[in-house]
Amino acid sequence: MLDGRNVTCRQLAVEQPWVAVCVNYMARQIARLPWKVYRRDGDAGRVRDRDSPAAQRLRRPDVRRTQTQLKFEAAVGLLVDGNHLERMVTCADGRPGLRALDWRWVVPYILDGDVVLWEYRPPNTDPVLLDPSEVIHYRWAGYRPGPLGVSPLEHLGVTLRNEDAAQRWGESNFRNGTRVGFAAILQKDGSQKQTPEVVEQLREQIVARYAGPENAGRPIVLGSGVADIKPIESQTPVEAALIDQRKLNREEVMAVYGLPPTIAGDLEHGTYSNVTEQGEALFRTVLPPWLELLQTETTVQMIGNPDPGEHYTEFDLNDVTRGDITKRMAAYQTAINAGVLTLNDVRDLENRPRFVEAAADEPLVMANNLVPLSMLTAPEPLDGPQDQGS
């Protein structure tokens, strides 16, 4: 409820600038991460799955829909509505795909704490009934019990009302262009009896006409009973605190989303060191809970394996967490020396062509120099020619 009108979470995300900043920034960072499907391969670890229906749905959700759009829309749904619904469909070209459903037009039917049926009824179209097995439901769990998620915006009711009022106050003040604060001096010649009722009625008229953010700066015209008005030169407490209040609103929005202020462009307390540190923390502490939610729900609801660890989806964070060239090379050197990575593993991570020599796929171990493991375990050649005598 803002200014006496009911607004949806999507409207708030559009109208409130700091909500839009947080949602857009986090959703775009999630959308840039590769989302892959893997399967366990015994002792070989895991291998990338490119051909299963789940892999095809993630790689290209629809004929005119990319994986980037899928990730962005799912993230926005969670960050704004606390829920997002994807319908598993067959694309026009026959491939398995995914189609986003607008949460505003989704009606869940709940029985014993579970959704037993989804109804999708957008305007000017016939409603569609969907079984839970036909959709993937992403939800951000909150403090309210039940199968539906909770929007982060529900925790910002007072904050967003304050911010909306401050925006309307500023807009009205600039539009009307005059000052509000004044004191009304009543006549003393007895021409009108100044009973408490008359004074209160006049006060109510003044408040109705000139108080509130919509009337900020409105020209003052008073009727009989007022002999003079005295402008109030100093700022009112509300005006003096307006800027600080808007800063507090901004901080509260970012706190709910767990986003460091410097990442979203608030550099009031930013330094070179904390900007760099908080930027690196984005993929360590801020986004991982949201990524984990997308990964696990997709694995369980779309793949549906009895053992999700056997076949699962995962976001690839290598590109965004590997650091600059100096840090990467130092880390690679340590990993090679410890036998954790091979030379070809490193070249794969750096998107460089692999060495064709088989030794490049073998772990290196410390000896006098780094050598392939097979050279240490091979039998030593005999010294000198064998005796052909007796």
List keywords for this structure.
390 residues; alpha+beta; three-stranded antiparallel beta sheet; 17% strand
Structural description of this entry:
The mean pLDDT is 81. Helices cover 41% and strands 17% of the residues. It is α+β, with helices and mostly antiparallel strands. The protein folds into three domains: 1-175 and 234-318, no CATH class; 182-231; 322-377, no CATH class. The protein has 13 helices and 13 strands. Strands 2-1-11 form a three-stranded antiparallel beta sheet. The chain is elongated.
Radius of gyration: 32 Å
Helix-strand makeup class: alpha+beta
Q: What order do the SSEs take from the amino end to the carboxyl end, as H and E? A: HHEEHHEEEEEEHEHEHHHEHHHEEH
Measured by DSSP, the beta-strand proportion falls in: 15-25%
Shape: elongated
**pLDDT averaged over residues:** 81
Instruction: Say how many strands there are.
Output: 13
Task: Give the end-to-end Cα distance, rounded to a whole number of Å.
Answer: 106 Å
| Major sheet attributes | 3 strands, antiparallel
Number of helical segments with 4 or more residues: 13
- Residue share in helix: 40-55%
Low-confidence stretches: none
Structural domain tally: 3
- Strand order within the widest sheet? 2-1-11
